[in-house]
Protein backbone atom coordinates (compact mmCIF):
# COMPACT_ATOMS: atom_id res chain seq x y z
CA UNK A 1 0.00 0.00 0.00
CA UNK A 2 2.76 2.43 0.91
CA UNK A 3 4.72 1.97 -2.28
CA UNK A 4 1.72 2.77 -4.43
CA UNK A 5 0.83 5.70 -2.17
CA UNK A 6 4.36 7.07 -2.10
CA UNK A 7 4.97 6.59 -5.78
CA UNK A 8 1.78 8.51 -6.58
CA UNK A 9 2.70 11.39 -4.29
CA UNK A 10 6.27 11.35 -5.51
CA UNK A 11 5.24 11.54 -9.16
CA UNK A 12 2.74 14.23 -8.24
CA UNK A 13 5.36 16.41 -6.62
CA UNK A 14 7.91 15.83 -9.35
CA UNK A 15 5.29 16.46 -12.03
CA UNK A 16 3.96 19.58 -10.35
CA UNK A 17 7.14 21.49 -11.13
CA UNK A 18 7.85 19.87 -14.45
CA UNK A 19 10.52 17.61 -12.93
CA UNK A 20 9.13 14.32 -14.14
CA UNK A 21 12.39 13.65 -15.99
CA UNK A 22 14.03 13.39 -12.55
CA UNK A 23 12.03 10.29 -11.74
CA UNK A 24 13.13 8.26 -14.72
CA UNK A 25 16.58 7.45 -13.40
CA UNK A 26 17.01 4.47 -11.11
CA UNK A 27 20.53 4.26 -9.78
CA UNK A 28 21.83 0.90 -8.67
CA UNK A 29 25.46 1.26 -9.63
CA UNK A 30 28.49 2.89 -8.06
CA UNK A 31 28.55 6.35 -6.52
CA UNK A 32 28.42 9.30 -8.92
CA UNK A 33 30.95 12.01 -9.58
CA UNK A 34 28.64 15.04 -9.30
CA UNK A 35 27.77 17.23 -6.31
CA UNK A 36 28.19 15.66 -2.90
CA UNK A 37 25.22 15.21 -0.58
CA UNK A 38 25.83 13.97 2.95
CA UNK A 39 22.94 12.48 4.92
CA UNK A 40 23.14 12.08 8.70
CA UNK A 41 20.92 9.38 10.22
CA UNK A 42 20.04 6.06 8.60
CA UNK A 43 16.52 5.77 10.01
CA UNK A 44 13.18 6.44 8.36
CA UNK A 45 13.99 9.91 7.05
CA UNK A 46 17.72 9.69 6.36
CA UNK A 47 17.81 6.31 4.63
CA UNK A 48 14.88 7.36 2.43
CA UNK A 49 16.62 10.61 1.50
CA UNK A 50 19.87 8.83 0.62
CA UNK A 51 18.12 6.27 -1.57
CA UNK A 52 15.84 8.73 -3.35
CA UNK A 53 18.63 11.23 -4.01
CA UNK A 54 20.45 8.51 -5.92
CA UNK A 55 17.28 7.42 -7.69
CA UNK A 56 16.52 10.98 -8.75
CA UNK A 57 20.03 11.78 -9.90
CA UNK A 58 22.59 8.97 -10.25
CA UNK A 59 25.36 11.53 -10.80
CA UNK A 60 25.14 12.57 -7.11
CA UNK A 61 27.74 11.36 -4.64
CA UNK A 62 25.61 10.45 -1.64
CA UNK A 63 27.20 9.58 1.70
CA UNK A 64 25.06 8.34 4.59
CA UNK A 65 26.52 8.60 8.10
CA UNK A 66 24.81 6.44 10.72
CA UNK A 67 26.17 5.43 14.12
CA UNK A 68 24.72 1.89 14.14
CA UNK A 69 25.36 -0.93 11.70
CA UNK A 70 21.77 -2.20 12.05
CA UNK A 71 18.58 -0.16 12.36
CA UNK A 72 15.79 -1.41 14.63
CA UNK A 73 12.42 0.14 13.90
CA UNK A 74 10.10 1.58 16.51
CA UNK A 75 7.11 0.67 14.35
CA UNK A 76 6.08 -2.83 15.44
CA UNK A 77 8.28 -2.64 18.56
CA UNK A 78 5.07 -2.59 20.61
CA UNK A 79 4.32 -6.04 19.16
CA UNK A 80 7.68 -7.22 20.56
CA UNK A 81 6.70 -5.81 23.96
CA UNK A 82 3.30 -7.54 23.57
CA UNK A 83 5.15 -10.84 23.07
CA UNK A 84 4.09 -11.84 19.55
CA UNK A 85 6.97 -10.58 17.39
CA UNK A 86 10.75 -10.83 17.46
CA UNK A 87 13.09 -7.83 17.45
CA UNK A 88 14.96 -9.46 14.55
CA UNK A 89 11.85 -9.02 12.39
CA UNK A 90 12.21 -5.26 12.94
CA UNK A 91 15.95 -5.08 12.14
CA UNK A 92 17.49 -3.83 8.89
CA UNK A 93 20.99 -3.41 7.49
CA UNK A 94 22.45 -1.04 4.93
CA UNK A 95 23.39 -3.46 2.14
CA UNK A 96 20.35 -2.34 0.13
CA UNK A 97 21.45 1.30 0.21
CA UNK A 98 24.99 0.38 -0.78
CA UNK A 99 23.46 -1.45 -3.73
CA UNK A 100 21.87 1.85 -4.77
CA UNK A 101 25.27 3.49 -4.86
CA UNK A 102 25.06 5.17 -1.46
CA UNK A 103 28.35 5.29 0.46
CA UNK A 104 27.48 4.24 4.02
CA UNK A 105 29.78 5.23 6.88
CA UNK A 106 29.13 4.02 10.42
CA UNK A 107 30.29 6.84 12.68
CA UNK A 108 29.04 9.39 15.18
CA UNK A 109 28.58 12.92 13.82
CA UNK A 110 29.73 15.34 16.51
CA UNK A 111 29.52 18.70 14.78
CA UNK A 112 28.45 20.55 11.67
CA UNK A 113 30.31 23.54 10.30
CA UNK A 114 27.60 25.17 8.19
CA UNK A 115 29.83 28.06 7.08
CA UNK A 116 32.53 25.73 5.74
CA UNK A 117 29.94 23.06 4.71
CA UNK A 118 31.63 20.28 6.67
CA UNK A 119 30.27 17.37 8.70
CA UNK A 120 32.63 16.51 11.56
CA UNK A 121 32.88 12.89 12.72
CA UNK A 122 33.99 11.62 16.11
CA UNK A 123 37.74 11.31 15.74
CA UNK A 124 37.96 14.54 13.77
CA UNK A 125 37.43 13.40 10.19
CA UNK A 126 35.59 16.01 8.13
CA UNK A 127 33.19 15.31 5.27
CA UNK A 128 32.59 18.18 2.84
CA UNK A 129 29.13 18.60 1.34
CA UNK A 130 27.30 20.68 -1.23
CA UNK A 131 23.98 19.82 0.43
CA UNK A 132 23.34 18.18 3.77
CA UNK A 133 20.30 16.23 5.00
CA UNK A 134 19.83 15.68 8.74
CA UNK A 135 17.36 13.14 10.08
CA UNK A 136 18.65 12.34 13.58
CA UNK A 137 15.28 11.51 15.14
CA UNK A 138 14.73 12.33 18.80
CA UNK A 139 16.70 12.54 22.01
CA UNK A 140 15.33 12.07 25.51
CA UNK A 141 15.14 15.06 27.88
CA UNK A 142 17.32 13.39 30.49
CA UNK A 143 17.02 14.83 33.97
CA UNK A 144 13.48 16.15 33.62
CA UNK A 145 11.19 14.81 36.41
CA UNK A 146 14.33 13.28 37.92
CA UNK A 147 14.59 10.60 35.20
CA UNK A 148 18.22 9.84 34.27
CA UNK A 149 19.87 7.59 31.72
CA UNK A 150 20.70 5.13 34.53
CA UNK A 151 17.01 5.13 35.57
CA UNK A 152 16.09 3.86 32.11
CA UNK A 153 17.70 0.53 33.07
CA UNK A 154 15.15 0.21 35.90
CA UNK A 155 12.14 1.95 34.40
CA UNK A 156 12.60 1.62 30.63
CA UNK A 157 11.23 4.21 28.23
CA UNK A 158 11.52 1.89 25.21
CA UNK A 159 10.97 4.96 23.00
CA UNK A 160 14.03 4.09 20.92
CA UNK A 161 13.76 0.50 19.78
CA UNK A 162 16.45 -2.01 20.75
CA UNK A 163 17.69 -3.12 24.18
CA UNK A 164 15.06 -0.94 25.89
CA UNK A 165 12.30 -2.78 24.02
CA UNK A 166 13.62 -6.15 25.23
CA UNK A 167 14.11 -4.88 28.78
CA UNK A 168 10.48 -3.82 29.06
CA UNK A 169 9.38 -7.14 27.57
CA UNK A 170 11.48 -9.11 30.09
CA UNK A 171 10.13 -7.06 32.99
CA UNK A 172 6.56 -7.85 31.93
CA UNK A 173 7.42 -11.55 31.69
CA UNK A 174 8.98 -11.50 35.17
CA UNK A 175 6.04 -9.68 36.78
CA UNK A 176 3.73 -11.89 38.84
CA UNK A 177 0.06 -12.21 37.91
CA UNK A 178 -1.79 -9.51 39.82
CA UNK A 179 0.96 -6.92 39.32
CA UNK A 180 0.47 -3.29 38.34
CA UNK A 181 2.04 -1.86 35.19
CA UNK A 182 2.26 1.94 35.16
CA UNK A 183 2.85 3.87 31.96
CA UNK A 184 3.59 7.59 32.00
CA UNK A 185 2.72 9.39 28.75
CA UNK A 186 4.13 12.85 27.91
CA UNK A 187 2.49 16.01 26.63
CA UNK A 188 2.67 16.83 22.91
CA UNK A 189 4.78 16.99 20.82
CA UNK A 190 6.56 13.64 20.96
CA UNK A 191 7.52 10.81 18.60
CA UNK A 192 4.49 8.85 17.34
CA UNK A 193 1.33 10.39 18.86
CA UNK A 194 -0.70 7.12 18.99
CA UNK A 195 2.33 5.00 19.99
CA UNK A 196 1.74 4.99 23.78
CA UNK A 197 -1.88 3.89 23.34
CA UNK A 198 -0.93 1.10 20.96
CA UNK A 199 1.65 0.03 23.54
CA UNK A 200 -0.96 0.12 26.30
CA UNK A 201 -3.26 -2.04 24.17
CA UNK A 202 -0.61 -4.65 23.44
CA UNK A 203 0.60 -4.79 27.05
CA UNK A 204 -3.07 -5.26 28.01
CA UNK A 205 -3.31 -8.05 25.43
CA UNK A 206 -0.38 -9.81 27.07
CA UNK A 207 -1.77 -9.33 30.58
CA UNK A 208 -5.25 -10.51 29.59
CA UNK A 209 -3.95 -13.69 28.01
CA UNK A 210 -1.13 -14.51 30.47
CA UNK A 211 -1.62 -12.54 33.71
CA UNK A 212 -5.33 -11.72 33.88
CA UNK A 213 -5.37 -10.45 37.49
CA UNK A 214 -2.96 -7.64 36.60
CA UNK A 215 -3.77 -3.96 35.98
CA UNK A 216 -2.45 -1.28 33.62
CA UNK A 217 -2.51 2.33 34.78
CA UNK A 218 -1.96 5.06 32.15
CA UNK A 219 -0.90 8.39 33.61
CA UNK A 220 -1.25 10.96 30.83
CA UNK A 221 -0.02 14.56 30.68
CA UNK A 222 -2.84 15.48 28.31
CA UNK A 223 -6.63 15.30 28.16
CA UNK A 224 -7.07 13.90 24.68
CA UNK A 225 -5.04 11.79 22.28
CA UNK A 226 -4.79 10.50 18.72
CA UNK A 227 -7.59 8.12 17.65
CA UNK A 228 -9.01 8.37 21.19
CA UNK A 229 -12.63 7.33 20.39
CA UNK A 230 -11.33 4.24 18.58
CA UNK A 231 -8.91 3.28 21.35
CA UNK A 232 -11.56 3.73 24.03
CA UNK A 233 -14.06 1.67 22.03
CA UNK A 234 -11.46 -1.07 21.54
CA UNK A 235 -10.40 -1.07 25.20
CA UNK A 236 -14.05 -1.39 26.26
CA UNK A 237 -14.46 -4.34 23.91
CA UNK A 238 -11.18 -6.11 24.63
CA UNK A 239 -9.79 -5.00 27.99
CA UNK A 240 -12.65 -3.78 30.18
CA UNK A 241 -11.50 -3.28 33.76
CA UNK A 242 -7.88 -3.94 32.89
CA UNK A 243 -6.80 -0.49 31.61
CA UNK A 244 -7.32 2.70 33.62
CA UNK A 245 -6.56 5.95 31.76
CA UNK A 246 -5.95 9.01 33.97
CA UNK A 247 -5.91 12.25 31.92
CA UNK A 248 -4.18 15.52 32.84
CA UNK A 249 -7.33 17.04 34.36
CA UNK A 250 -7.74 14.02 36.67
CA UNK A 251 -4.14 14.28 37.94
CA UNK A 252 -2.48 12.21 35.21
CA UNK A 253 0.66 14.35 34.82
CA UNK A 254 3.75 12.75 36.34
CA UNK A 255 6.07 15.32 37.92
CA UNK A 256 8.61 13.09 39.66
CA UNK A 257 10.01 9.63 38.95
CA UNK A 258 11.75 7.39 41.49
CA UNK A 259 13.01 4.58 39.29
CA UNK A 260 14.69 2.71 42.16
CA UNK A 261 11.40 2.42 44.02
CA UNK A 262 9.35 2.13 40.80
CA UNK A 263 7.24 5.01 42.04
CA UNK A 264 5.93 8.14 40.34
CA UNK A 265 4.37 11.24 41.80
CA UNK A 266 1.76 13.31 39.98
CA UNK A 267 1.04 17.04 39.85
CA UNK A 268 -1.34 17.00 42.84
CA UNK A 269 0.92 14.81 44.96
CA UNK A 270 -0.53 11.34 44.36
CA UNK A 271 2.05 8.54 44.50
CA UNK A 272 1.71 5.42 42.38
CA UNK A 273 3.79 2.30 42.96
CA UNK A 274 4.40 0.06 39.97
CA UNK A 275 5.61 -3.49 39.52
CA UNK A 276 6.69 -2.50 36.02
CA UNK A 277 7.19 1.17 35.20
CA UNK A 278 7.29 2.31 31.57
CA UNK A 279 8.18 5.99 31.76
CA UNK A 280 7.95 7.71 28.36
CA UNK A 281 9.86 10.96 28.87
CA UNK A 282 9.63 14.29 27.09
CA UNK A 283 11.79 14.58 23.98
CA UNK A 284 13.73 17.01 21.80
CA UNK A 285 15.21 16.84 18.33
CA UNK A 286 18.29 14.60 18.06
CA UNK A 287 21.29 16.27 19.73
CA UNK A 288 23.26 16.96 16.55
CA UNK A 289 20.73 19.52 15.24
CA UNK A 290 20.73 21.23 18.62
CA UNK A 291 24.56 21.28 18.67
CA UNK A 292 24.48 22.72 15.16
CA UNK A 293 22.23 25.56 16.36
CA UNK A 294 19.37 24.59 14.05
CA UNK A 295 16.68 24.03 16.72
CA UNK A 296 14.68 26.88 18.24
CA UNK A 297 13.65 27.29 21.88
CA UNK A 298 11.00 24.55 21.44
CA UNK A 299 13.81 22.00 21.02
CA UNK A 300 12.68 21.20 17.45
CA UNK A 301 13.91 22.47 14.07
CA UNK A 302 11.90 25.05 12.11
CA UNK A 303 11.97 24.35 8.36
CA UNK A 304 10.93 26.03 5.13
CA UNK A 305 7.64 24.23 4.42
CA UNK A 306 8.10 23.64 0.70
CA UNK A 307 11.57 22.10 0.90
CA UNK A 308 12.32 21.18 4.53
CA UNK A 309 15.43 23.38 4.40
CA UNK A 310 16.52 24.69 7.75
CA UNK A 311 15.36 28.31 8.11
CA UNK A 312 18.85 29.05 9.45
CA UNK A 313 21.10 27.28 6.91
CA UNK A 314 19.80 26.99 3.34
CA UNK A 315 22.14 24.14 2.30
CA UNK A 316 20.92 22.00 5.21
CA UNK A 317 17.65 20.08 4.95
CA UNK A 318 16.15 18.58 8.11
CA UNK A 319 13.47 15.88 7.97
CA UNK A 320 11.68 13.48 10.30
CA UNK A 321 10.95 13.69 14.00
CA UNK A 322 13.54 16.44 14.56
CA UNK A 323 11.43 19.03 12.72
CA UNK A 324 8.46 21.19 13.64
CA UNK A 325 6.18 20.12 10.81
CA UNK A 326 2.74 20.07 12.41
CA UNK A 327 0.09 19.11 11.46
CA UNK A 328 2.27 16.31 10.13
CA UNK A 329 2.92 13.93 13.02
CA UNK A 330 6.32 12.69 14.13
CA UNK A 331 5.95 9.37 12.35
CA UNK A 332 8.07 7.09 10.20
CA UNK A 333 5.63 7.49 7.33
CA UNK A 334 5.84 11.30 7.54
CA UNK A 335 9.66 11.15 7.75
CA UNK A 336 9.70 8.99 4.60
CA UNK A 337 7.40 11.41 2.80
CA UNK A 338 9.36 14.49 3.93
CA UNK A 339 12.65 12.89 2.83
CA UNK A 340 11.34 12.40 -0.70
CA UNK A 341 10.25 16.04 -0.83
CA UNK A 342 13.66 17.19 0.43
CA UNK A 343 15.46 14.92 -2.07
CA UNK A 344 13.45 16.37 -4.96
CA UNK A 345 14.10 19.93 -3.68
CA UNK A 346 17.85 19.27 -3.44
CA UNK A 347 18.05 17.89 -6.97
CA UNK A 348 16.05 20.84 -8.28
CA UNK A 349 18.26 23.31 -6.41
CA UNK A 350 21.47 21.74 -7.73
CA UNK A 351 20.05 22.08 -11.24
CA UNK A 352 19.05 25.69 -10.68
CA UNK A 353 15.37 24.80 -10.94
CA UNK A 354 12.53 25.79 -8.59
CA UNK A 355 11.52 23.27 -5.92
CA UNK A 356 8.42 21.20 -6.71
CA UNK A 357 5.08 21.94 -5.05
CA UNK A 358 4.98 19.07 -2.57
CA UNK A 359 2.27 16.78 -1.26
CA UNK A 360 2.97 14.74 1.87
CA UNK A 361 1.11 11.70 3.14
CA UNK A 362 0.84 9.93 6.43
CA UNK A 363 -0.99 6.87 7.68
CA UNK A 364 -0.51 5.67 11.25
CA UNK A 365 -1.74 2.17 11.97
CA UNK A 366 -2.20 1.04 15.55
CA UNK A 367 -2.80 -2.48 16.77
CA UNK A 368 -5.08 -3.02 19.77
CA UNK A 369 -4.41 -6.76 19.58
CA UNK A 370 -2.66 -8.90 16.95
CA UNK A 371 -5.86 -8.96 14.87
CA UNK A 372 -7.46 -5.62 15.71
CA UNK A 373 -6.14 -2.58 13.79
CA UNK A 374 -7.18 1.07 13.47
CA UNK A 375 -5.77 3.92 11.36
CA UNK A 376 -5.51 7.66 10.96
CA UNK A 377 -4.50 9.10 7.59
CA UNK A 378 -3.59 12.61 6.46
CA UNK A 379 -2.61 14.45 3.28
CA UNK A 380 -0.77 17.77 3.52
CA UNK A 381 0.21 20.65 1.24
CA UNK A 382 1.63 24.11 1.65
CA UNK A 383 -1.36 26.43 1.99
CA UNK A 384 -0.79 30.16 2.58
CA UNK A 385 2.88 29.50 3.28
CA UNK A 386 2.26 26.86 5.96
CA UNK A 387 2.01 23.09 6.00
CA UNK A 388 -1.70 22.30 6.29
CA UNK A 389 -4.16 19.43 6.04
CA UNK A 390 -5.70 19.24 2.58
CA UNK A 391 -9.37 19.99 3.25
CA UNK A 392 -11.58 16.92 2.89
CA UNK A 393 -8.64 14.47 2.86
CA UNK A 394 -7.54 11.94 5.45
CA UNK A 395 -9.60 10.68 8.37
CA UNK A 396 -9.77 7.83 10.84
CA UNK A 397 -11.23 4.32 10.78
CA UNK A 398 -14.98 4.18 11.45
CA UNK A 399 -16.31 3.52 14.94
CA UNK A 400 -18.46 0.44 15.43
CA UNK A 401 -16.73 -1.54 12.66
CA UNK A 402 -16.95 -5.34 12.53
CA UNK A 403 -14.27 -7.69 13.84
CA UNK A 404 -13.52 -8.58 10.22
CA UNK A 405 -12.89 -4.91 9.40
CA UNK A 406 -10.52 -4.52 12.38
CA UNK A 407 -8.78 -7.75 11.35
CA UNK A 408 -8.28 -6.42 7.83
CA UNK A 409 -6.80 -3.19 9.20
CA UNK A 410 -4.36 -5.25 11.27
CA UNK A 411 -3.27 -7.07 8.12
CA UNK A 412 -2.95 -3.73 6.26
CA UNK A 413 -0.61 -2.61 9.05
CA UNK A 414 1.63 -5.60 8.29
CA UNK A 415 1.59 -4.77 4.56
CA UNK A 416 2.36 -1.13 5.27
CA UNK A 417 5.37 -2.18 7.33
CA UNK A 418 6.65 -4.62 4.69
CA UNK A 419 6.26 -1.97 1.97
CA UNK A 420 7.79 0.98 3.76
CA UNK A 421 10.79 -0.93 5.08
CA UNK A 422 11.43 -2.27 1.56
CA UNK A 423 11.02 1.26 0.18
CA UNK A 424 13.62 2.57 2.64
CA UNK A 425 16.24 -0.15 3.21
CA UNK A 426 15.49 -2.48 0.26
C1 LIG B 1 6.64 2.68 20.03
C2 LIG B 1 6.70 3.40 18.72
C3 LIG B 1 5.90 2.97 17.68
C4 LIG B 1 5.92 3.64 16.45
N1 LIG B 1 5.11 3.20 15.45
C5 LIG B 1 5.06 3.88 14.28
C6 LIG B 1 4.20 3.44 13.22
O1 LIG B 1 3.47 2.45 13.36
N2 LIG B 1 4.21 4.14 12.08
C7 LIG B 1 5.00 5.23 11.88
O2 LIG B 1 4.96 5.82 10.79
N3 LIG B 1 5.84 5.67 12.87
C8 LIG B 1 5.88 5.02 14.05
N4 LIG B 1 6.73 5.45 15.05
C9 LIG B 1 7.54 6.69 14.85
C10 LIG B 1 8.82 6.44 14.07
O3 LIG B 1 9.64 5.49 14.71
C11 LIG B 1 9.61 7.74 13.94
O4 LIG B 1 8.72 8.78 13.58
C12 LIG B 1 10.70 7.62 12.89
O5 LIG B 1 11.66 6.68 13.30
C13 LIG B 1 11.34 8.99 12.64
O6 LIG B 1 12.35 8.89 11.66
P1 LIG B 1 13.67 9.78 11.78
O7 LIG B 1 14.45 9.53 10.55
O8 LIG B 1 13.31 11.15 12.17
O9 LIG B 1 14.43 9.17 13.05
P2 LIG B 1 14.97 7.67 13.26
O10 LIG B 1 14.20 6.73 12.43
O11 LIG B 1 15.03 7.45 14.72
O12 LIG B 1 16.44 7.72 12.67
C14 LIG B 1 17.43 8.52 13.25
C15 LIG B 1 18.78 7.88 13.01
O13 LIG B 1 19.81 8.85 13.15
C16 LIG B 1 20.92 8.25 13.79
N5 LIG B 1 21.68 9.34 14.43
C17 LIG B 1 21.19 10.31 15.24
N6 LIG B 1 22.17 11.17 15.59
C18 LIG B 1 23.31 10.74 14.98
C19 LIG B 1 24.64 11.21 14.99
N7 LIG B 1 25.00 12.30 15.67
N8 LIG B 1 25.57 10.53 14.27
C20 LIG B 1 25.22 9.41 13.57
N9 LIG B 1 23.94 8.92 13.53
C21 LIG B 1 23.00 9.58 14.23
C22 LIG B 1 20.30 7.29 14.78
O14 LIG B 1 21.21 6.27 15.15
C23 LIG B 1 19.10 6.76 13.98
O15 LIG B 1 19.43 5.59 13.28
C24 LIG B 1 6.76 4.77 16.28
C25 LIG B 1 7.56 5.20 17.33
C26 LIG B 1 7.53 4.53 18.54
C27 LIG B 1 8.41 5.01 19.67
TrEMBL record:
Residues 36-137 form the FAD/NAD(P)-binding domain. Residues 356-425 form the Flavocytochrome c sulphide dehydrogenase flavin-binding domain. InterPro entries: FAD/NAD-bd_sf, FAD/NAD-binding_dom, FAD/NAD-linked_Rdtase_dimer_sf, FCSD_central, FlavoCytC_S_DH_flav-bd, FlavoCytC_S_DH_flav-bd_sf, SQRD, TAT_signal. One of its GO terms (molecular function) is oxidoreductase activity. Pfam families: FCSD-flav_bind, FCSD_central, Pyr_redox_2. It comes from the Bacteria. This is Sulfide dehydrogenase (Flavocytochrome), flavoprotein subunit. Residues 1-27 form the signal peptide. Keywords: FAD, Flavoprotein, Signal. Residues 165-281 form the Sulfide dehydrogenase [flavocytochrome c] flavoprotein chain central domain.
Amino acid sequence: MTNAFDRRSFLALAGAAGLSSLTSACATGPAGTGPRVVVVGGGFGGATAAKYLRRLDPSLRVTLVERSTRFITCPFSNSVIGGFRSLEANTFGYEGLRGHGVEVIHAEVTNIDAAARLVVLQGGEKLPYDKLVLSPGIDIKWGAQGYSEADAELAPHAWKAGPQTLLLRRQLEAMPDGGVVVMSIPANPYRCPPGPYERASLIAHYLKTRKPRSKLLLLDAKDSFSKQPLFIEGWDALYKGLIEWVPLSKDGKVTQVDAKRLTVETEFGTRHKADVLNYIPGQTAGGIVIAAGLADSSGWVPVVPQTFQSVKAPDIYVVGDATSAAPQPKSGFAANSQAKVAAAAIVASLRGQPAPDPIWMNTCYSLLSPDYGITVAGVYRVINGKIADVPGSGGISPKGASAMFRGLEASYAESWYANITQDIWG
